[in-house]
Write a structure and sequence with these properties.
Elements lengths: L2 E3 L1 H7 L2 H16 L9 E4 L4 E9 L4 E9 L3 H5 L4 E8 L6 E6 L1 H19 L6 E5 L3 H13 L5 E5 L3 H14 L4 E4 L3 H5 L4 E4 L18 E4 L12 H6 L2 E4 L2 H4 L3 H8 L10 E2 H5 L13 E4 L4 H18 L3 E2 L1
Parallel strand pairs: 1-6, 7-8, 7-10, 8-9, 10-11, 11-14, 12-13, 12-14
Antiparallel strand pairs: 1-15, 2-3, 3-4, 4-5, 5-6
């Protein structure tokens, strides 16, 4: 029998805390070289892409594949989410599909959890002010992850190119976190200036975050650019950083954030301090000095999806959620 879970059923059992546990465990397995994760497979359509992302983590007894489509104009053209995903979880013992579940909600939360894991290991523990560029679904997920690992944050500045979106986002977040001051700001510069943590989670094709705005001791969490056509960080951010950390080196240099500085001769793969899994596994320290400027470049890994789906499967079985087919 295979357990089928809709998005609503996944939402019933999965919260950010559980997602963080799953994602951090996945990074630890990766840091200990206990995963099998081939490169993503892409199909390119006129309006978007389809991506297949398989992974196996023997230590967690978890294996599966996410199939995700990314069509940026979906909301405008069809009233649909830009990202639509399904995850198939397989038994490593006999290959049987244990579960088929919605992956759209998992994708949103696990990306927030990945950014939060970077924040946990690379930002200052006494961080109080954060700036977020991007007030979409991922902006919300990043804030949810941020508040789990840095509950001492007192102020969050929010910027989006759509003024109504950033105002609505700030209002929604105030209801979720009434003790935190959420402020809608008019520029990425205002969001970044004097912020201890700067999060970028936009689909921007052009770099907009300037290193001149990043203060000493800040952490930059670069989430949005996951293809060569997207770029959020100016080369000046890369130059100013004391530590560049990525989730997966081969994927990081595909994105505009690192591909362009590499083409400019500013960085090479040797410029990367570590993959995040290496730090989570305790093989390299994360932040070592209060004044360090750190950058975490996330691209999204199949282990995050499979690890989270495995957690969802366990919780759903325990709570008797979903339909056996």
């Amino acid at each position: 029998m295979t357990l089928y879970l809709t998005q609503e059923e996944v939402q019933k059992v999965l919260d950010m805390k559980s997602t963080l546990e799953a994602v951090e465990s996945a990074f630890r397995e990766m840091g200990n070289d206990k995963i099998e994760m081939p490169p993503r497979v892409y199909l390119h359509f006129d309006k978007g892409v389809l991506i297949a992302m398989p992974a196996y983590m023997p230590g967690l007894n978890a294996a599966g594949t996410k199939i995700v489509t990314v069509h940026p104009s979906n909301k405008k053209d069809y009233g649909l989410p830009a990202v639509i995903a399904r995850i198939i979880l397989n038994s490593p013992e006999n290959g049987v599909p244990l579960a088929i579940m919605d992956g759209t909600y998992i994708t949103a939360l696990r990306t927030g959890a990945a950014g939060a894991t970077g924040i946990k290991y690379l930002s200052r523990a006494d961080s109080r002010v954060a700036g977020v560029c991007g007030a979409g679904v991922q902006g919300k997920s990043q804030v949810m992850g941020l508040m789990e690992v840095r509950p001492g944050v007192q102020k969050v500045k929010v910027y989006d190119i759509i003024s109504e979106a950033r105002k609505a986002f700030a209002e929604e977040m105030r209801k979720m976190y009434p003790k935190v001051e959420f402020v809608s700001v008019d520029s990425a510069r205002e969001a970044a200036t004097d912020s201890d943590i700067v999060i970028t989670c936009t689909p921007s094709p052009e770099a907009f975050l300037d290193g001149a705005w990043i203060k000493k001791g800040a952490h930059v969490s670069a989430i949005g650019a996951d293809t060569g056509a997207k770029r959020e960080l100016m080369t000046s951010v890369i130059k100013k950083a004391d530590k560049l950390v990525v989730d997966f080196i081969p994927q990081a240099f595909v994105t505009g954030d690192f591909r362009v500085p590499k083409e400019e001769g500013v960085i090479t793969e040797d410029s990367i301090y570590a993959q995040l899994g290496t730090i989570v596994a305790g093989k390299k320290p994360g932040r070592e000095k209060p004044g360090e400027i750190t950058v975490f470049k996330a691209t999204g890994l199949a282990i995050q999806d499979v690890g989270t789906a495995h957690k969802v499967y366990q919780l759903a079985k325990e709570k008797k959620v979903g339909k056996e087919i």
